[in-house]
Amino acid sequence: MGATPLGRAAVAVSLLAILVATLTPIGGAPQPISLCLLCGDRGVADALRNVVLFVPFGMAASRCGLRDARVMATAALLSLAVESAQIWIPGRDASLGDVVFNSMGAAVGLGVVRSSVWWLRPPEGRRRLLMLGAVAAVLGVFGATGALLQQDLPRSTYWSQWTPQLGHLKWYRGRIERVMLGPLDVPDGRISSSQIARTLLLAKAPLEIRAVAGPRVPALSSLFSIADEQSREILLLGPDRYGLVLRHRTRARRARLEQPYLRADAALRGIAAGDSLRVSVRADGNGYCLVVNERASCGLGFSLGRGWGLIAFPEPLPSGLRLVLDDLWVACLVVPLGFWLTGGRLAPLAILVVTAGLSILPASTGLMPTPLGQWIGAGAGLALGLALRRSVGAPPRA
Question: 245 or 345: whose pLDDT is higher?
Answer without folding.
Answer: 245
